[in-house]
């Protein structure tokens, strides 16, 4: 691995790595490789449910739903969101490791990633002008946060039990319960 | 800030701990969080913006408070927070002898690595659920970057992010402030690319 003493590695060297052969998944931010948290059972089920909802809705359209092994490149950062959707021909046609124009990015939150997902990574995703929607799914309670781009700012909505989630970027509306199918939640979460 | 306890702490125990301690603790869901200590830049930023708000609100019905005041966003004591800056426009909150704010209009948190996760997670949801809150602001201490969550309707909020050299607008108190004034006398980098806040 081509990293110097303080862990700095160039973007070019990062992209040249055989990423699939590494011990775990990494993202590339600020010149450094950031190890990604391992997933839980709940994490995997939520991704699978979200993927199913999107896939069935987008079937026959020009859009593709990508799993987390597709990298999203934004300026000098390379991220690996749990799900990304792109309708951009250039993202779909090429034999590339990365896409650059996702319209929708979904992350399943865990307590250790929440700050990064809402802070630093959200700042990075905003630099991607193609991105219309950024969705954060909680696994410890039935709660989904949706950021929808509206010119220079983002609309922020929170969905809970009984709500219909609206993803404007993909023209998709579904009950939150369908996303949380087969997820066992602790009975009482106050917020 | 550090989580103090592994076991569940009741509100009664929390009161007892606060009575016998020099330092403040926040409380949520059986956990207490030590609020002691802070960096010089954290203190500068809170004072800079708090001072601007204080001058701006003088003679008006709204008052600005520092982190000595408890805020109860959900009405009862779970959770209890000590935001860095709070503005309330409800005289019940600032009448003589009042020790808690129940109707905050504007909440400002200066982020630090140990609190950012709670500020962006649990607190964002709690303040969103508090009907009087119109704006919730988080200020980075790593770079000159700031984010504002602003209520537009019950269910819909807006998120705006500002970086160095911009001028922020706080509609809840009808105030515009240049970022440079918030970060005055700190050596926090303006950050050209805005990619890497904390």
How does this model look, in words?
The complex is a heterodimer of chains A (191) and B (198). With 191 residues, chain A is of the alpha+beta class. Chain A has 6 helices and 13 strands. In chain A, the strands form 4 sheets. Chain A has a 6-stranded mixed sheet. A 3-stranded mixed sheet of chain A has the order 5-4-7. In chain A, a hairpin with a 4-residue loop joins β12 (164-167) and β13. Chain B contains 6 helices and 12 strands. The longest helix of chain B has 18 residues, at 40-57. In chain B, a hairpin with a 2-residue loop joins β1 and β2. Chain B is globular and about 45 Å long. In chain B, strands 3-5-7-8-9-10 form a 6-stranded mixed sheet, with helices on both faces. Chain B has a two-stranded antiparallel sheet with strand order 1-2. Chains A and B meet through α4, α5, β10 and β11 of A and α4, α5 and β10 of B.
Question: Helices and strands in order, then pairings?
Answer:
The complex is a heterodimer of chains A (191) and B (198).
Chain A: H1 11-16, E1 26-29, E2 32-35, H2 41-58, E3 64-67, E4 71-74, E5 77-79, E6 83-86, H3 89-93, E7 98-99, E8 104-108, H4 114-118, H5 120-126, E9 133-137, E10 143-150, E11 153-160, E12 164-167, E13 172-175, H6 176-179
Chain B: H1 11-19, E1 25-28, E2 31-34, H2 40-57, E3 63-65, E4 70-71, E5 85-88, H3 91-94, E6 100-101, E7 104-110, H4 116-120, H5 122-128, E8 135-139, E9 145-151, E10 156-163, E11 167-170, E12 175-178, H6 179-182
Parallel strand pairs in B: 4-6, 7-8
Antiparallel strand pairs in B: 1-2, 3-5, 5-7, 8-9, 9-10, 11-12
Oligomer class: heterodimer
State the share of residues found in helices of chain A, binned by percent.
10-25%
Shape of chain A: globular
Low-confidence stretches of chain B: none
Total E-strand runs of chain A: 13
Structural class of chain A: alpha+beta
* Biggest sheet record of chain A: 6 strands, mixed
Task: Please tell me how large the radius of gyration of chain B is.
Answer: 16 Å
What class, by secondary structure content of chain B? alpha+beta
Element string of chain A (H = helix, E = strand): HEEHEEEEHEEHHEEEEEH
> What's the tally of helices of chain B?
6
Distance between the termini of chain B: 16 Å
Distance between the termini of chain A: 44 Å
């Amino acid at each position: 691995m081509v990293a110097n003493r303080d862990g700095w590695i160039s973007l070019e060297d990062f992209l040249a790595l055989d990423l699939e052969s590494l011990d775990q998944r990494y993202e590339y931010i600020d010149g450094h490789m950031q190890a990604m948290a391992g997933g839980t059972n709940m994490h995997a089920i939520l991704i699978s449910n979200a993927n199913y909802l999107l896939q069935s809705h987008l079937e026959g359209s020009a859009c593709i739903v990508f799993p987390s092994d597709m990298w999203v490149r934004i300026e000098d950062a390379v991220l690996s969101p749990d799900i990304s959707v792109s309708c951009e021909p250039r993202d779909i046609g090429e034999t590339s490791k990365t896409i650059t124009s996702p319209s929708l990015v979904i992350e399943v939150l865990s307590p250790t990633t929440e700050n990064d997902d809402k802070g630093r990574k959200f700042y990075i995703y905003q630099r991607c002008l193609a991105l219309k929607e950024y969705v954060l799914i909680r696994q410890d309670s039935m709660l989904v946060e949706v950021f929808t781009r509206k010119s220079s700012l983002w609309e922020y909505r929170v969905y809970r039990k009984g709500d219909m989630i609206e993803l404007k970027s993909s023209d998709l509306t579904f009950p939150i319960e369908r996303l949380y199918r087969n997820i066992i939640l602790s009975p009482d979460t106050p917020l | 800030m550090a989580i103090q306890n592994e076991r569940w702490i009741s509100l009664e125990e929390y009161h007892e701990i606060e009575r016998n301690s020099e330092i403040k603790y926040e409380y949520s869901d059986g956990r207490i969080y030590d609020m002691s200590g802070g960096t010089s830049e954290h203190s500068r930023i809170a004072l800079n913006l708090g001072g601007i708000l204080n001058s701006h609100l003088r003679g008006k019905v709204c008052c600005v408070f520092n982190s000595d005041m408890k805020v109860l966003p959900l009405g009862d004591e779970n959770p209890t927070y000590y935001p860095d800056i709070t503005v309330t426009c409800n005289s019940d909150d600032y009448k003589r002898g009042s020790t808690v704010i129940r109707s905050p209009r504007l909440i400002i948190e200066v982020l630090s690595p140990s609190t950012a996760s709670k500020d962006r997670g649990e607190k964002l949801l709690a303040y969103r659920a508090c009907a009087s809150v119109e704006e919730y602001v988080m200020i980075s201490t790593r770079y000159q970057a700031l984010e504002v969550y602003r209520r537009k309707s019950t269910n819909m909020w807006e998120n705006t992010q500002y970086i160095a050299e911009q001028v922020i607008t706080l509609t809840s108190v009808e105030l515009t402030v240049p970022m440079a004034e918030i970060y005055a006398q700190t050596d926090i980098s303006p950050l050209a690319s805005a990619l890497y806040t904390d």
